[in-house]
Batch of 3 targets.
Target 1
Amino acid sequence: MHILVVNDDGPPSQKCSPYLFPFVKTLEKAGHLVSVVIPNSSRSWIGKAHIIGEPLQATYISPEALVTDSGTSTHRAHDPNDAGTNGLSVPSNQHGRSTPDTSRPWVVVNNGTPAACTQLGIYSLFPDREPIDLVISGPNHGRNASIIYGLASGTVGGALEAATCGKKAIALSFASKEKQPAETIQAASRLSVKLIERLSAHWPGDRVQLYSINVPMRLDVEERPAVYTNMLQNSWSKSSLYQEVDIHTSQPEKASSNNSNNINTNGDINLREGTSSPTKRGGHDDQRVQPPQARYFKWAPELSDIQRSVEASQVGTDTYTVMNGWTSVTPLGANFSHVPGFSGELIL
């Protein structure tokens, strides 16, 4: 098969993306033609989003150039004036336009998301290769079990994008963020390739548009069952993703810069919804109007309530299955299914 691999963790690194390189090597060892398109940095929690208004720069690269001897990523944003650094180069034709070098089957996309990498990989980046048979998004660094994680996941988002392009798609997650021995990663990769080959060969038509696979990181994972599951239905019970910060005490220079950017030379405060003047003139008196007060929040997920729902999950769910050391395989449709039982006119 010609398999397109995308991810949301970015280039190989011990910290953020330790599973990608060994997994791709295992796919190739099994005889598959593999093309890889990945964002230049982590895009976790981004779902199936595309970043509009920014150009995407796709750089063809030898995969070995992405990894140092210590296994950390060497990739940085590509400087067009420094084409040879770290093995990064975009071949150009006589008109100065980049031309695909498909002898380098890895592509790094600046400003890319998993969904964008999927689109580019299917339609644009490998014209000299046979069409894509299957898209694998992952392996994610950590599990993507339950709808809270599934709907937010860039890994699942990359697979969803492939499904909406009419391709078979699998979101693959290795369910641990802890550092793993090489032998455990290799075992998870071997099992994943066997599962992927089996699912692809017996795809049940339009009934399934993508699978979400969560693999427990255990040395004996190949000896333990892989079972079909449902996604745990959970939800936030409190605001758990962001924490308010006092930007004036934590980042005074940035706060000052932000204020100067928001106030123009006429003293007006520019807002997304419109403008507000700091003075209101009526009659002979000027009435001072307080400008809108900005509040600042940082990304600081507090996941204790989600963890409680995971720990209370029932047999048959993806979370229960992977937490108990079995591999979870969840068949999914790429849609927001309507709820049956509603029809006719709404009387107001």
Target 2
Amino acid sequence: MTAALLSADEVSFLSRHGYSEEDIYDGRYQSKERRAAAAKEAGKHLVLAGVIGRGDCRTLGHRLRTRAGHCIQCKPINIAFQRREDEPGYVYIAGSLTGRVIKIGTTGNLSQRENQMRAEGYGGSKDWIVLFSLHVDRGGEFERATSSRVRGKRVYRTYIKDGIEQGAVELHQCSFSEALRAMIEHLSEGERKRLTVFRSSNAGQYEFQYE
């Protein structure tokens, strides 16, 4: 993509966040679905779209978006969300016996993440243990797809982090086996054979039953 397609403000915005015009997919004349698929195929995190949206976004003429269609000029934090979707990492299943819940997440460091969840009392529990993990090319995307396949109630619980109440939303009232089924079903046959897998010997203790 050439810089001529971008305004000076857009070029400046991208530069401040570590991007250039080469990182942008030109999807101005495509539907949202086609634009997202083509940008993904091209390996681009961000797209140039037409001026869409409501309120300030439309008034200010914002065109830079994530593949999912979220404005990065209104909310630059959307850039971090998109990067997380595309980065390789460990997708894990963790469990809490005291909370009787299962969490599916992604991280670059399993032991650090496990310790962090315990120290923070994530979701109101301090006994988290990683029960299963595998390393995939697109951690955030794989995590989201797995969570959507889980048959069980998703629950919301709060906890205090740095003196501020936080919400934990990636929690499931389900058994370890159900979370594992959802994760394995998302793998191709080739991936099941080649991916490195960790499974805790304690996983059997987390077969929570819910009506």
Target 3
Amino acid sequence: MKMTDRLRSLCRLRSAERFRLSWATRITLVRILLIVPFIMFLLNMNDPTVSPRARTGLRYAAIAVFVVMAVSDALDGYLARRHRQITRLGTFLDPVADKLLMTSACLLLASQRGHVEGFTLPTTVVVAIVGKDILIVVGFAILYLVTSQIRVVPVLLGKAATALQLVMVACVLTAPEFSRVIPQYRAALSVLWWSAAAVAILATLVYIRNGSRYIERFERSGAENEATGSTDADKRQHH
């Protein structure tokens, strides 16, 4: 009995070690959790019952949380590559964290409650950025329905879109300070957010193209396998 119990304990220990989350995945999970206080800070940033000084403090708090999330985004990717801890869970959670952050940030920065005074994000920009993420999620669903697989393949243009959006959000949040010392800051910010929208649209088109090609290859491969199976069956019948 004692030997059996030891073997069971050893199996449980090995199973626990096998499914232990990597540090990269843990950082990604923390980044997802930090979205909650980030949203809360933005939602209360324009509360009329809060003093102007407190509103500024809330915006600074949102900036601080955003910086931590942006740094953690780079850190978890570095750790995953450096220590060879690239997992399916991490590969799935990383873009999810990015999409949750950018969707919440864009929606709030364009809203009445979460906007930065004088630097409200245009609705068209929000539609382009959030629309990209919605279409990607729909695309994943279609891929899974057709192929019974979920493939997360990063695209260079998609990474560029995310990086540009991160810079855009940071620049909007810090606009009241920088606009005082940089005369053309508002114009530069306008160029930045329209550029982010344009790159998001281009990235969406690339994802749609790649997804369509993958489905075509999958269906072609299935048809070829069926044809091969039918040929083999015919040969067996003749023999």
